[in-house]
Q: What sequence folds into this?
């Protein structure tokens, strides 16, 4: 595991700020409910993970969500959506990081991003069914959803939304990765030695 030095923490802070700004630039996808928003804030977290290791990526995910919670708040009063976003980000960046770290090619990055998208979609479907949807209904004082209602919501909206979100992030990141690959490789080497 890479030790994080002062340079790494400064970079994590900057990438967290960029991730927070990207999180504010979210937008809905028409067929899905308004609480499901697309944003590209996982890209700086993925860059942090690739350069400084998985802990750095997790920290960027954490800091962007903490910043967003304190700056914009939450409809529920508690950070249910922020916790969901944090876990979704981790479920996307960690598989991507580990697959790419093993293969270290553009094809490996593509495979990692697709696996990350799938892991995020499946994990978030399960967590929404068992944790997040019940928490939303409880904190918003909404009627409790029955098991069939929750299942249909997860299958019709949560699962496809997270997979589409993963594919959109994958598409944007692959364009960036083509341009930044040499720089990321150089930074990884510098931080492994440092």
A:
């Amino acid at each position: 595991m890479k030790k994080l030095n002062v340079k790494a923490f400064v970079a994590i802070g900057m990438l967290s700020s960029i991730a927070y700004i990207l999180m504010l630039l979210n937008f809905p996808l028409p067929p899905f409910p308004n609480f499901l928003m697309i944003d590209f804030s996982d890209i700086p977290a993925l860059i942090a993970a690739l350069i400084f290791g998985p802990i750095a990526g997790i920290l960027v995910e954490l800091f962007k969500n903490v910043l967003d919670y304190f700056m914009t708040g939450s409809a529920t009063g508690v950070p249910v959506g922020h916790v969901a976003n944090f876990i979704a980000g981790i479920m996307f960046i960690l598989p991507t990081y580990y697959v790419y770290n093993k293969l270290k090619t553009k094809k490996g990055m593509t495979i990692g991003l697709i696996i990350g998208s799938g892991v995020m979609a499946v994990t978030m479907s399960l967590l929404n069914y068992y944790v997040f949807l019940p928490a939303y209904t409880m904190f918003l004082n909404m009627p409790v959803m029955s098991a069939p209602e929750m299942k249909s919501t997860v299958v019709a909206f949560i699962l496809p939304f997270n997979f589409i979100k993963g594919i959109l992030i994958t598409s944007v990141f692959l364009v960036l990765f083509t341009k930044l690959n040499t720089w990321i490789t150089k930074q990884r080497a510098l931080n492994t030695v440092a």
Q: What stands out?
A: The chain is about 80% helix and 0% strand. The mean pLDDT is 92. The two ends are 13 Å apart (CA to CA).
